[in-house]
Specification:
393 residues; alpha/beta; Rossmann fold; 2 domains; three-stranded antiparallel sheet; 11 helices; 19% strand
C-alpha cells in the first residue's frame, strides 16, 4: 500500500487510544489513526458515508492498516493492548454523534428538549390556542396592535427562547383576537446573519405549530427585483428561491423529527394556492389590487445587501423580490403541514449593473414600512378575517 496516499476515512465511529484521552478515527491509508479533539466539532457532517463498527476499526489496526500515532502496530499486538483495561472507566459517549443515526451533528438531543421546555412554558403561561400564526417582518410589528385582548409574552421571559437583535423587531409573542379569530403574532424574527444556526431561526414556527396553529402568515420587507414593482407594493409570494439552501444551509438538514413531518418534504405547493387567491380577492375588495403583485421571493443570507451583479443573477433566474428571511420559516411550516401565505412589502428598488442609485439601507426599509403600515395592516386584517371564516368549524 502506498504510504503517501491521502487518508480516506472509512470509520465514522470513534475509538479511543488507551494511552490518550483523544478520540481516533481509523483510515485506509496505512498511515495512522488521526486524533480528533474531544468533544468534536459542532455541526459537522458525517466524516464518511459508510460507518464501520469500532471492532472493525480495531481490526484495521491489528492487520497493519492503521496505527496509533504513538507507535507502529504489528500482528504481535493483542486486542487487549488496544482497549482500556477493565479497571479503567468506560469510554464516554462521543457527544458529536447522534445516538439514533451515528451521524456527527450539532447537539441533537438539546433542540428536542428545548422545544419541550418552551412548549410546556407557553401552555402553562397562556390558555390561547391560536388558529393563525403571523410572523411580522422588519417595520411590520404594528400588526399586533390590531389585536383585541392581547396577551404579550416577551422572548426574554420564555426559557431557552432566542432573542431578537435587529431594529424593528420588538421581541415578543402577542396572543389575541382579530375579529373573533384567535391568532399569535411573532414580533421579531431571527436571522442567520445574527449568528443563529438556521434551525434556531425556525424554532418559533414549530412552537406555534405545537400551540395549535393551522395557518402561517409570513411577512417581510424586500427589495424589488422586478422592474414593474414599485416601493410600497405588496407581493404575494407564489414561490421562492432558497440560495443558502442550494448550498446546504437548510433548516431540515440533520435527523428528522417525526413529530413534525416526514423526512423528505415536497415544496411544490408550499405557498397555498387557495390562500393566494384569497389574498387577491381581499385586495380587490379593498381597492388595493393595483398595489398587490405576485412573484418569486429570493432568500439570501445577508447581512450585506446584494451587489448589482448578484441582483442581475437573481432576476435572470426568475426572482421578483429579494430578502434575508422567511424562506427557512416557510420550509419548516411546510414540514409541519401548515398552510402558508407569504407577503413581501417592497421597500426599495435594487440597483442593477450600470445603474445609478442610492445604496439600500435598513433605515430606508423602516421608513417605507412606516409609510405603508396602515394599508398593509388593513390588508392583513381582512385576510385573517377571510381565513377564519373559510376554516371548517
Amino acid at each position: 500500500m502506498n504510504s503517501d496516499a491521502a487518508p480516506v476515512l472509512v470509520d465514522a465511529t470513534f475509538v479511543k487510544d488507551s494511552s490518550s484521552s483523544v478520540c481516533m478515527r481509523a483510515c485506509t491509508s496505512g498511515a495512522e489513526v488521526h486524533p480528533l479533539p474531544h468533544p468534536p466539532c459542532i455541526g459537522a457532517p458525517p466524516a464518511a458515508p459508510t460507518a464501520v463498527p469500532s471492532a472493525a476499526a480495531v481490526a484495521l489496526v491489528l492487520n497493519g492498516l492503521a496505527h496509533f500515532p504513538t507507535r507502529r502496530l504489528d500482528h504481535s499486538h493483542s486486542i487487549d493492548s488496544l482497549l482500556p483495561s477493565r479497571s479503567q472507566e468506560p469510554i464516554p459517549e462521543c457527544r458529536c454523534r447522534s445516538a439514533t443515526t451515528g451521524h456527527a451533528m450539532f447537539n441533537e438531543q438539546a433542540p428536542r428538549d428545548r422545544i419541550d421546555v418552551i412548549n410546556d412554558y407557553l401552555h402553562e403561561r397562556t390558555t390561547a390556542r391560536p388558529l393563525i400564526g403571523i410572523v411580522c417582518g422588519s417595520g411590520l410589528g404594528g400588526l399586533s396592535k390590531c389585536l383585541q385582548n392581547p396577551d404579550v409574552v416577551k422572548y426574554e421571559d420564555i426559557p431557552q427562547f432566542p432573542k431578537s437583535t435587529v431594529e424593528g423587531h420588538a421581541g415578543e409573542l402577542v396572543f389575541g383576537e382579530l375579529d373573533g379569530i384567535q391568532v399569535v403574532c411573532m414580533r421579531g424574527r431571527f436571522h442567520s446573519y445574527e449568528g443563529y444556526d438556521i434551525k434556531e431561526t425556525t424554532l418559533p414556527i414549530r412552537i406555534m405549530y405545537l400551540l395549535g396553529i393551522k395557518y402561517l402568515l409570513v411577512t417581510n420587507a424586500a427589495g424589488g427585483l422586478n422592474p414593474d414593482f414599485n416601493v410600497g407594493d405588496i407581493m404575494v409570494m407564489n414561490d421562492h428561491l432558497n440560495m443558502p439552501g442550494l448550498a446546504g444551509k437548510h433548516p431540515l438538514v440533520g435527523p428528522n423529527d417525526a413529530r413534525f413531518g416526514e423526512r423528505f418534504t415536497p415544496l411544490v405547493n408550499c405557498y397555498d394556492k387557495k390562500l393566494q387567491q384569497l389574498a387577491t380577492d381581499c385586495a380587490e375588495k379593498l381597492a388595493l389590487i393595483h398595489k398587490v403583485r405576485k412573484g418569486v421571493y429570493c432568500f439570501v443570507s445577508g447581512p450585506t445587501y446584494e451587489t448589482p451583479t448578484e441582483c442581475k443573477l437573481l432576476r435572470l433566474v426568475g426572482g421578483d423580490a429579494v430578502g434575508m428571511s422567511t424562506v427557512p420559516e416557510v420550509i419548516v411550516a411546510a414540514h409541519c403541514g401548515l398552510k402558508v401565505l407569504g407577503l413581501s412589502l417592497i421597500t426599495n428598488r435594487v440597483i442593477f449593473p450600470g445603474e445609478e442609485g442610492i445604496a439600500p439601507s435598513h433605515e430606508e426599509v423602516l421608513e417605507a414600512a412606516e409609510a405603508t403600515k396602515h394599508e398593509i395592516e388593513t390588508y392583513v386584517r381582512d385576510i385573517i378575517y377571510a381565513i377564519g371564516n373559510q376554516h371548517p368549524k
